[in-house]
Amino acid sequence: MKDIEIDILLIEDNVHDAELTKRALMKDNVVRHITHLKNGEAALDFLFGEGQYTGRNTDNKPKVILLDLKMPKVSGLEVLEKIKSHELTKKIPVLVLTSSKEHPDVEKSYLLGANSYIIKPVDFDNFRKAVNELGIYWMHISQPLL
Fold first, then answer.
1. How many other C-beta atoms are found inside a 10 Å radius of the C-beta of residue 64?
2. 112-133: pLDDT as tens digits
3. Within the chain, how many helices (H) and strands (E) appear?
4. Angle at CA 111, nearest 5°, toward 110 and 112?
5. Handedness of CA 135, 141, 113, 127 (dihedral sign)
6. In whole angstroms, what is the distance from residue 89 CA to residue 100 CA?
7. Which member of 59, 64, 105, 144 has the lowest number of beta carbons within 10 Å of its beta carbon?
């Protein structure tokens, strides 16, 4: 059985924000397959084939990761650090999508290897538009590092 190719791995603990993000990305068929995980611990287990994801084909990597920073169990910054320091995952583009405007979060995200830092717009229409444009750029315009 062939694994379903993962376009985007969404790591977001807020169910409402996750649903809005998924709807925006599915609009106009920007992406086909979004995998949503609700905390950093689950995300790391998924990416590295551990815990409840033991045996998962880790060669089936997401094309892009959308990562919230403020999450329970393992923070987004910890997830980012592990992703960018591991040979298996360091080439995957990680876009921080968060409500944090705090300068230390922005700076640390880039120092750890984030490819982009996006502050979630509060207004629904602006949020949907921003996420849709992110999906178009990262899935169809940007050239991946192979």
1. 26
2. 999 999 998 888 888 888 888 8
3. 5, 5
4. 90
5. negative
6. 24
7. 59
